[in-house]
Each structure stands twice: as C-alpha cells, then as structure tokens.
Specification:
alpha/beta, 6-stranded mixed sheet, 6 strands, 48% helix, globular
Length: 273
C-alpha cells in the first residue's frame, strides 16, 4: 500500500480523526528510525530534480497546504522537506490574521494572490482553511457564513486542478500531551522562546473545539481532486518522512518532462569556435 493510500482521508468514507494514533508511524517501522533520515535525504534530493523539471516544463504547478495545531511542526517541515528546492521555483506563504485590506475582500482573495504560477511550487503555512477553523471556533462569522465555505473551498480547489494545479493538503496531527511538551520546551529554549505566544496557550484551551472543526474540514473537503492527508506528527522524523514520500510519489506520477529545446542545437554547436 502506498503512503498516499495509507494516510489519505478517502472522499466519502467514514473517517474519525479521534481514531488516528498521533504517535503512530504507518508505512515505516519505528525500529527503522535510523534509516528514516537517509530515506528523507533521498527524497529531498529527488524533489529538487522534480522541481527543476516542473519549472522547465512551465505548464503545471503544485500547491502544498499545511495545517495543524500550534507546535505541530509546520515550520520544521518546511525547513527539512523543502530545503533542497530552488527558491526561484518555490514560494512559502504564511497566513496570519487577515489585514484590514484582506478583510475588505472575500476570504479567498488573499489566497488567489499567493497561488503558484505555472512551473512553480507554492507552500501554504496555514491557508484558506483558517476560515472554517479559527473563524468557526472563535465565532468570528455566523454559522451560516462559515458553513457555506466548505462548498466554496471545494469549488475553488476543483478550479485549481482544472487549471493544472496539483493540490496536496497535509494535516499535521499531534496529540495534546505532545503539544504541551513542545510548548513547554519552547519556553525553556533561548533559541526558540521568542516564538512563544500567549495566543498559543489560549488556543490550546479550545483543543476540543478545534478537533471538531478539523474533523469537519477533513471530511467535507477531502475530494478526489484535492484529498487531505492526516500525518501522525508526534514523531518529527516520521512527519517529515511521510510528507516527503507523498510529495515524491505525487510528483513522479505527474510524469514531468523537459520541453524540447527552442534553438537548433546542431546549429549552435557549429557556431562555437
């Protein structure tokens, strides 16, 4: 069974987020942890080559969506899995609380602006899903408003795929105890405590509300064209390995090819003296 099949929220299937073991490592035995780093390096190198072909082909694009609770490892994942990519062809966008200008438009306006062009890879650290997560949990919009957004998001992602954008969505799923451990470790680390925020602990108090919101987002918006993948993320090494495997698997299936040269190669060779 491929990584995608093991970790995908199958569209239309009965899925319960509560049944996912956040400390599990489906597809890779924990006893082989020492081998995981080597495999990750192989995948990072392979992704660099695939990105180069995508850039050269200049016909399609890839959008990677990362969601997860605070301290689930979104930043760490970007640093490891995407470390080998050329910044010329890859752009990472972090979506914070919307600005005044963004609030003056529809909720997808700022998302459209950040989409990757043909030949590019876009990585969203948080995304349009905040509008059915934070907005829902904090009652920032009436239920009728955010509830209608599930269908809007599905239509939006279908439009992207029809336009040549492959959409990969990853929910980095950590347990509540593991989140507590990471947040406390962050406070004790002078190299990381600058990231500490009172908001992290405020949001933690709404854990159950967020799990319900994620449950709905994952089941309502995992579609054949843009499925969700739930990545058990208590183990950082497994989180990065699993995402890199799915990325590599997906891009290899895209059958990317270098375009034919525009110039007459033989004629150019004759001109070199």
């Amino acid at each position: 069974m491929t990584w995608r099949k093991q970790l995908q929220v199958r569209p239309g299937a009965d899925f319960r987020l509560a049944d996912v073991d956040t400390g599990g490592t489906p597809g890779w035995k924990k006893s082989r942890k020492s081998e995981a780093e080597e495999r990750l390096h192989e995948n990072v190198a392979a992704l660099a080559g695939l990105e180069y072909k995508l850039y050269a082909e200049n016909r399609r694009a890839l959008l990677v969506v990362l969601q997860g609770m605070d301290a689930s490892g979104k930043d760490g994942l970007v640093r490891t899995v995407f470390s080998g990519l050329n910044p010329q062809g890859c752009r990472v966008t972090s979506f914070k609380a919307p600005s005044v200008e963004e609030l003056a438009h529809d909720f997808l306006w700022r998302i459209h602006k950040a989409l990757p062009p043909q030949g590019g890879i876009g990585v969203f650290n948080r995304s349009h899903y905040e509008d059915v997560l934070v907005v829902r949990v904090h009652d920032l919009a009436p239920k009728a408003v955010w509830k209608a957004r599930y269908a809007t998001i599905n239509d939006f992602e279908r439009l992207l795929t029809e336009s040549g954008v492959t959409v990969l969505k990853f929910f980095l799923h950590i347990g509540r105890n593991e989140q507590k451990r990471r947040l406390l470790a962050r406070l004790d680390d002078p190299n990381r405590n600058w990231k500490a925020s009172e908001a992290d602990f405020v949001e933690r108090a709404r854990w159950n509300d967020y799990m319900k919101a994620y449950q709905d987002a994952l089941t309502r918006c995992s579609t054949p064209c843009a499925p969700w993948y739930v990545i058990p993320s208590d183990h950082k090494w497994y989180r990065s390995l699993a995402v890199s495997e799915i990325l590599r698997e997906t891009m290899e299936e895209m059958r990317l090819k270098f375009p034919p040269p525009l110039a007459d190669i033989a004629a150019l060779r004759r001109k070199i003296k």
